[in-house]
Design a protein that fits this description.
Blueprint (H helix, E strand, L loop, with lengths): L5 E3 L4 H12 L4 E4 L1 H7 L7 E5 L3 H7 L4 E2 L5 E6 L1 E8 L1 E3 L11 E3 L3 H6 L9 E6 L4 E5 L4 H6 L2 E2 L5 H7 L2 H13 L2 E2 L1 H10 L8 H12 L8 H10 L3 H4 L1 H4 L14 H11 L5 H9 L3 H5 L8 H15 L4 H13 L10 H11 L4 H15 L7 H16 L11 H8 L5 H16 L6 H16 L32
The structure holds adenosine-5'-triphosphate and magnesium ion.
Adenosine-5'-triphosphate binds next to helix 7.
Length: 489
């Protein structure tokens, strides 16, 4: 296939209708970008993008109910089949700060529009000749089809110009090469290496969106690590994710060879493709190893790592809730289960981790195990802990809300004023019930509380809190090894 060839495609009704109506109104309109790249490769496109000579106002007027999203004039049209993104031909204005165009100029023609696109494989268009039969002609002035066939990713036009006017294109190069299995053309790669430090000026949001799209890689043959390794090789990881790049060369005593960065990449790959944020947590889970290396055992690396991961997430402008969730996963990933754990220890573990985090924490740990070369039967401890969690969750309360008494019961039943003492009593009651769920009746709890209150009044000392769940120890996942030091009460 080449420029000017006819190609018949299975066009979804929604995309066909958009092309049809634009043409009927006298505008030039063609499929462009990822959808055409996918079509010439014989893949089914996931997005349908149309470029047109019609200005955005006119596009939205032609399609009632469509939404006009941003100042770049992308209009989303919903219809039968997938959404269609319609973009007015552009020839971008100058970039002042290598971050985003200072202004967008509408282009005159499809050729203008293709010339401002990033890579040749993304600069192919398909212009309909007979819509009902799905027939159209390929427009490929930059020889993107041939590059796709030869599996090469090449900047459109002058790579120096193309890659420096928007630094995000360097990051996108790693994404496309990794996800599509392309080799980055030498000249393109050389320019990226030369200008990699300029990616520091990119906004966190734009880097985040590219990173998450790398992490969405659905094809196990081309896992996210392919793009991430390219980020490293091109010198972009050291600029954008220095905490991660610092794991290169940090030694690991694991069954699988490689350093802490190799291990992190393997962990990411082992997580599900439809959970890009969980994959990000996997990528960041061992960041603390670079800073705790000195002690030889990475003691406390999950604490240092949680802080580093939170800093990365904030820098990438992740929503607050997502950033805290990643921080918690990293913080908790080193639990060390052994069969000696009592039910009370299992309940404390659930309380410490938070019931809402358990499923994701186990998924992360399973990936961590797989990426460490920890195989069955050693990894069976994880399943056992999960089974025991299900049991104890059914057998008694895990939080104050499950207690048979609340604050009002205590003030009324014991004749005390509301205040900090009530909170303290509820905390102690919960500890008691975690140890022995059979205590969880109104009568027993009021009795216990009144005894404690009497001790307090008599100047008795409050007991020390029981140890807060299992300690963590050692380096790798420890759900696998019996570590007597880690046995909680
Ligand atoms: P995917 O299938 O992963 O969505 P895509 O090719 O559709 O791939 P997008 O990021 O959705 O990639 O961008 C759509 C098209 O817009 C690209 O194919 C490219 O032609 C153009 N494009 C997007 N961002 C840029 C950019 N920063 N510089 C130049 N062209 C860009
Ligand atoms: Mg797209």
């Amino acid at each position: 296939m080449r420029d000017g060839d006819l190609l018949t495609i299975a066009l979804p009704a929604s995309a066909g209708a958009v092309l049809d109506r634009l043409a009927a109104a006298g505008h030039d309109a063609a499929l462009v970008g990822g959808s055409v790249r996918d079509l010439v490769s014989g893949w089914v496109p996931k997005d349908w993008d149309v470029a047109t000579s019609a200005p955005p106002e006119e596009v939205s007027a032609l399609f009632p109910g469509s939404t006009w999203e941003n100042r770049f004039g992308t209009v989303t049209v919903r219809g039968e089949g997938p959404d269609v993104q319609v973009t007015t031909f552009r020839s971008e204005g100058p970039y002042r700060d290598r971050r985003r165009p200072t202004r967008v100029t509408w282009g005159r023609s499809l050729d203008d529009d293709l010339a401002r696109r990033d890579f040749t494989v993304n600069a192919i268009a398909w212009r309909p000749t007979d819509l009902p039969s799905g027939e159209g002609r390929l427009v490929d002035p930059h020889r993107g089809i041939s590059d796709m066939e030869r599996r090469v990713l090449r900047a459109v036009g002058d790579p120096e110009l193309r890659l420096t006017e928007d630094a995000l294109r360097m990051v996108r190069a790693a994404r496309f090469a990794g996800r599509l299995g392309l080799h980055i053309a030498d000249e393109t790669a050389t320019v990226i290496r030369r200008h990699a430090t300029e990616s520091a000026a990119l906004s966190g949001e734009r880097v985040r969106d590219e990173l998450l799209r790398m992490l969405e890689a659905p094809d196990p043959q081309r896992p996210p690590s392919a793009a991430l390794r390219l980020l490293e090789e091109l010198g972009l990881m050291a600029v954008l994710l220095p905490e991660l790049a610092a794991l290169r060369g940090v030694p690991q005593a694991k069954a699988l060879a490689g350093d802490a960065l190799d291990h992190s990449l393997r962990t990411t790959d082992a997580l599900p493709a439809d959970r890009p944020l969980l994959r990000l947590a996997g990528l960041l889970h061992d960041l603390g190893k670079a800073t705790t290396l000195a002690d030889g055992h990475f003691i406390g690396h999950e604490v240092a790592g949680a802080e580093l991961a939170a800093a990365v997430a904030d820098r990438l402008r992740l929503p607050r809730a997502d950033a805290r969730w990643i921080e918690r996963l990293v913080r908790q990933h080193m639990f060390a289960y052994t069969p000696e754990w009592t039910d009370a220890a299992v309940r404390r573990f659930i309380r410490r981790v938070g019931a809402d985090l358990l499923d994701d924490l186990f998924a992360l740990r399973a990936a961590d195990n797989a990426a460490s070369g920890v195989l069955r039967p050693a990894s069976a401890g994880l399943d056992e802990l999960q089974a025991r969690i299900a049991e104890v969750r059914a057998s008694g309360p895990l939080g104050q809300e499950g207690l048979a008494v609340d604050g009002n019961d205590l003030t009324a039943g014991l004749g005390i004023e509301p205040g900090p003492v009530v909170g303290e009593l509820l905390g102690r009651l919960l500890e008691a019930v975690l140890d022995d769920p059979s205590l969880n009746s109104r009568e027993r709890l009021l009795q216990l509380a009144s005894t404690w209150l009497a001790e307090r009044g008599a100047g008795g000392h409050r007991q020390a809190d029981p140890p807060n769940g299992p300690a963590t120890a050692g380096d790798g996942p420890a759900a696998t090894i019996g570590d007597p030091g880690a046995v909680p009460r």
